[in-house]
Design brief:
Chain C: It comes from Candidatus Kurthia intestinigallinarum. The complex is a heterotrimer of chains A (203), B (584) and C (255). With 584 residues, chain B is of the alpha+beta class. In chain B, 36% of the residues lie in helices and 17% in strands. Chain B is globular and about 70 Å long. Chain C folds into two domains: 106 residues, Ubiquitin-like (UB roll) (Roll), CATH 3.10.20.30; 135 residues, Fumarate Reductase Iron-sulfur Protein, Chain B, domain 2, CATH 1.10.1060. Chain C has a five-stranded mixed beta sheet with strand order 2-1-5-3-4. In chain C, strands 6-7 form a two-stranded antiparallel ribbon. Classes of the chains: A mainly alpha (203), B alpha+beta (584), C alpha+beta (255).
């Protein structure tokens, strides 16, 4: 990596986590949520996405490239940290570690998820629809894997928003950082409910 | 011709100021310090720094500051350098302010000043109650800038082992040792400035930091430099008694309205205010110390029968206390556990500062050509007693004098050290290496260096501090001679050749013994009472016989040769020192 | 005579940077109001372990003993702190004492913190003055701003914040919270601010500001109560602005 450019890479990492990756996550979970309204509703919503023009370009520019950068640089960041939870058991230190653990887990989970639902489709020319997901989560282990994956993602995003606010210098005071913690954690709970309800709708 | 080089030993205020001044004049400086310079003992100074800036409409002036200082020092200081210091003081305060020291301000954004002992004026600039720390940091930062610019090289974690003198006895460098690797090296220098601080650790527990053994100054004294007024040891009236250290409770506590009292007949007795109505709690330190000592030791009126009295701030506004005295309030809270906002602090006098030190002329030049001294390790500014908040001033002022004078001295040399043959340097390293090997192999004896030091501290504290009797001083000298023999019987317990602190300490202990002799013999021979030196057998000041600087010269037996030198009183005629009345 | 109360203390020792580590246990006579330094002092007066084995005195750094010099940082009962202000009565026993592992170990509890001083060079932690000549008064400063800046100026480079930071370790080049907070201090001083862009650009380099992972341990650990995390967040904002200035090319870098 170019010398003395670390600052910009880090800021890019922080930005991409929110836009577009974070936004996509929210969008994705909302589409999935359609499944709670029945098979038809989900297939329609998913179909709409499928029908978008320049889908391949959009997928790469808006999702894969930013996601891969965020993921790989994030793994690098995670592995430069040395946990000291035993000495400092504060909330923020826990969140710091959870952010890194969830990030690493998400790299595995998302890789698997993309393989299972996108690449296989391209290779085997299978269709992405309700049945496909229902098939996957009919395996209880797979269902658990997905639930953990969804919660990891919603936590990583919510806490990532908190970090974003600090890293870009928006929340400076103790007070504003505290409020941001509450707001992002409420967001985490809400988004998790949406995500988990959606996945359970496939069972 | 090679570029000239100045060596500065010690990285406190005096050493850093010397370094800055020399670097500013384009001279390369090598700076040596036992600890990273930011950890020097100057950080412990609390209350502030004096300078007659006269912002309170009190008609203060450098002359009055000069008069207060000379009077406070009981006329033992040569007056020309004191006058020069007091005249430079306002400029030094503004300089430090420009460097970014966070001095407390008035509502208008100007420097604020508070009162200190021995004066009627608000003359002390302060940064909370950690002024020394703040000043040291400012100079540390400036020197770091010079380091980046390449004119200053720091050797932190190196111990000074001695000057290197040529055949004519002129100083041409120093011997020093890396404290981790124990590598001994000779450093060439056209001139050397000693800025190595005070010797408080000779008294065991004091308000001083652990590196203040006086060892470096003692080495220079042992190499032939004269040592002056060694017996003038300031005992600070207010320190917190402790197991490892007697922590200073700044005079600024009284400057901001703190009151000293104890119980007498069941009622609070403000004994300083009663006896000294004009100065009250702000009498000079030697006076306050003797009164507290008398109340506790002679009258047995210490709190709960212990040797402590109250220093009371509990009547003051808590918020104002935090802003003006935050640092010391925190220290008391952390180390004692009581809250000075609410309860009075328990304090007792403790060894604090040495007015005496290496003899220097008005250029800060010691009696060894090419070796200068500045700061607490020189004797020049405070006479028989130092006024509070004059030490930061004298340390920095000493640097502003020593630096340029050392550079000018170098300019006058016809030959630079880089052009000298390497023989004296090689010999110096060999000699020190042999001494080191000797100490490191001291593993047969049964004395523990730290316990021997403890005994030394108790001996000195009991006999050579607040009240001095000739009989006890004589006995102390005999004991010191015994200690010198016992030193040979030390077992270092550790023969590691890597970061061996015990060996360093053992070596320092010997140097402490040499200075302890100077302090004690100077006290024994001065048959009068002056400033911090008080003998009940001779309660009056005796100008006829002792308005003189004590000068000690080293002999291998450690028993110094003492001579006297007239004091320059050409500006202010000596008068009786008496704080019971009004302005003097 | 009543039996003398004692304190048990375990010290992690290491003879040299390359040597292996070992734990040694000592028993030290108790005295009221004792701090960890006086425990270590007792050990060096009689360097014998609990099991009666003669050993070397423990090596450690100390100087002022009143928490202003920053020398005596070590990890006591798992917490990095100043050992002078660590009072035995407030600590659980047996005491465990270790060196700060973030820094290279010299011997026993002594560590090499020179990287912190190097960082101060890198970030230009000083007020640039023209010289030490008498150039008159310094700039005026509102007292309330002074009170705030004073808190930042108390940093003693003790290294406790670096030790507490999960992102400062041998695998990363992060300079840690202490030097960053100094940048904030000097960038607010009227004269110091004249080169504030240079300091910001310095901390926007490798090992700088962006390495902070917001675990916020530093502010918990700082013995001087310096608002380190607020400093970092504030610098983050300044760096954001500086980043845009640098890129879009504002022609006045200092205002």
């Amino acid at each position: 990596m170019a010398k003395e450019k670390e600052f910009y890479w880090r800021r890019l990492h922080s930005l991409l986590g929110l836009i577009p990756v974070g936004l996509f996550l929210v969008f994705h979970l909302l589409v999935n949520f359609q499944a709670t309204k029945g098979v038809e509703a989900f297939n329609e919503a998913a179909g709409l996405v499928e029908k978008m023009p320049f889908l391949l370009v959009l997928e790469w520019v808006v999702i894969y490239i930013p996601l891969m950068f965020h993921a790989f640089y994030g793994v690098y960041i995670a592995f430069t940290a040395k946990s000291n939870l035993k000495r400092f058991g504060t909330t923020r230190n826990w969140f710091f570690m959870l952010q890194r653990l969830s990030g690493i887990f998400l790299v595995i989970f998302i890789a698997w998820h993309i393989w299972q639902t996108r690449l296989q489709k391209t290779l085997a020319d299978a269709e992405v629809n309700y049945d496909m997901m229902a098939d996957i989560v009919s395996n209880p282990a797979m269902l658990a894997f997905y639930i953990v994956g969804i919660i990891a993602a919603t936590f990583h995003l919510s806490n990532g928003i908190w970090s974003f606010l600090v890293s870009w210098g928006i929340t400076q005071s103790k007070q504003s950082q505290k409020v941001a913690t509450w707001v992002t954690m409420i967001f985490f709970v809400l988004l998790s409910v949406v995500g988990v309800m959606a996945i359970l709708a496939f069972v | 011709m090679a570029k000239s080089k100045l060596l500065v030993v010690g990285g406190g205020l005096a050493g850093l100021m010397t370094t800055m001044k020399a670097a500013e004049m384009g001279t390369e400086v090598e700076l040596f310090s036992l600890v990273p310079v930011k950890r020097s003992h100057s950080v412990c100074a609390q209350g502030g720094m004096n300078g007659a800036v006269n912002t309170k409409g009190e008609g203060d002036s450098p002359w009055i500051h000069f008069d207060d200082t000379v009077y406070g020092g009981d006329f033992l200081a040569n007056q020309p350098p004191v006058k020069a210091m007091c005249e430079a003081a306002p400029g030094i305060i503004h300089l430090l302010d420009r460097m970014g020291v966070m001095f407390n301000r008035t509502p208008e954004g100007l420097l604020d000043f508070r009162r200190f002992g021995g004066t009627m004026h608000h003359r002390t600039a302060f940064a909370g109650a950690t002024t020394g720390q703040q000043l040291l940091y400012a100079l540390d930062e400036q020197v770091r800038k010079w380091e980046v610019e390449g004119l200053v090289t720091k050797f932190e974690g190196w111990e000074f082992l001695g000057l290197i003198l040529d055949e004519q006895g002129v100083c041409k460098g120093i011997k020093a040792q890396d404290l981790a690797t124990h590598e001994i090296r000779a450093f060439r220098g056209d001139a050397v400035v000693m800025a190595t601080g005070g010797p408080g650790i000779i008294f065991g527990k004091s308000t001083n930091s652990m590196i203040n053994t006086g060892s470096a100054a003692s080495i220079v004294y042992q190499q032939g430099a004269k040592y002056a007024n060694g017996e003038m040891i300031q005992i600070h009236p207010t320190a917190i008694p402790g197991d490892d250290k007697l922590r200073l409770m700044s005079e600024s506590a009284r400057g901001e309205g703190g009151r000293i009292w104890t119980y007498k007949d069941g009622k609070p007795w403000y004994f300083l205010e009663e006896k000294y109505p004009a100065y009250g709690n702000l009498v000079p330190r030697d006076v306050a110390t003797r009164e507290i000592f008398d109340v506790c030791i002679n009258q047995k009126l210490g709190i709960n029968g212990e040797n402590v009295v109250y220093l009371d701030l509990s009547h003051k506004d808590p918020h104002e206390l935090d802003i003006k005295l935050g640092g010391i309030i925190e220290i008391y809270q952390k180390f004692v556990g009581d809250d000075p906002h609410k309860v009075p602090m328990k304090i007792f006098p403790a060894v604090h500062y040495s007015m005496g030190g290496l003899y220097v002329d008005y250029d800060q030049h010691t009696t060894i050509p090419g070796c200068f001294a500045a700061g607490e390790c020189d004797y020049s500014q405070h006479g028989g007693n130092r006024l509070g908040a004059n030490s930061l001033l004298s340390a920095i002022y000493g640097g502003t004098v020593a630096g340029p004078n050392a550079v000018n001295y170098i300019k006058g040399l016809d030959k630079h050290v880089e052009d000298l043959p390497s023989k004296i340097y090689d010999d110096a390293v060999r000699e020190e290496q042999a001494k080191w090997n000797e100490v490191i192999s001291m593993d047969k004896g049964n004395e523990n260096a730290y316990l021997l030091h403890k005994e030394l501290g108790e001996l000195m504290t009991n006999n050579v501090t607040v009240v001095r009797y000739n009989k006890q001083l004589q006995e102390t000298l005999e004991k010191l001679a015994e200690f010198k023999e016992r030193w040979n019987n030390i077992n270092v317990n550790d023969t590691a050749k890597w970061s061996n602190q015990g060996i360093q300490f053992t070596r320092q202990l010997r140097n402490m013994l040499a200075l302890a002799n100077v302090i004690t013999k100077g006290a024994l021979l001065r048959d009068e009472s002056r400033g911090a030196h008080y003998k009940p057998e001779f309660p009056e000041r005796d100008d006829e016989n002792f308005l003189k600087t004590t000068i000690a010269e080293f002999t291998p037996s450690f028993d110094p040769i003492i001579t006297y030198e007239e004091v320059d009183c050409s500006m202010i005629k000596p008068r009786k020192r008496d704080y019971t009345g009004g302005a003097h | 005579m009543a039996e003398q109360k004692t304190i048990t203390v375990k010290v992690k020792r290491q003879d040299s940077p390359e040597a292996s580590t070992r734990w040694e246990e000592f028993e030290v006579p108790y005295r009221p109001n004792m701090n960890v330094i006086s425990v270590l002092m007792k050990i060096r007066e009689n360097p014998v372990t609990t099991s009666g084995k003669k050993t070397t005195p423990v090596a450690w750094d100390m100087n002022c003993l009143e928490e202003v010099c920053g020398a005596c940082s070590m990890v006591i009962n798992g917490r990095p702190r100043q050992s002078c202000s660590a009072l035995v009565d407030q600590l659980q026993q047996p005491l465990t004492i270790e060196p700060m592992s973030t820094f290279p170990i010299i011997r026993d509890l002594q560590v090499d913190r020179s990287r912190m001083f190097d960082s101060l060079k890198k970030v230009k932690a000083w007020v640039p003055i023209d010289g030490t000549y008498d150039l008159g008064e310094g700039p005026r400063l509102p007292e309330r701003k002074r009170e705030w800046a004073y808190e930042l100026s108390k940093c003693m480079t003790c290294g406790v914040c670096l030790e507490s930071c999960p992102n400062v370790n041998s695998g990363s080049s992060f300079m840690g919270p202490a030097p960053l907070s100094q940048v904030r201090l000097f960038n607010t001083h009227p004269t110091g601010a004249m080169v504030k862009d240079e300091r910001l650009n310095a901390i926007m380099g490798d090992g700088g500001l962006a390495n902070c992972g917001n675990s916020q341990n530093c502010v918990q650990a700082c013995p001087k109560g310096i608002p380190l995390t607020t400093s970092i967040a504030s610098l983050n904002r300044a760096a954001t602005v500086q980043m845009f200035k640098n890129f879009f090319g504002s022609d006045h870098m200092v205002d």
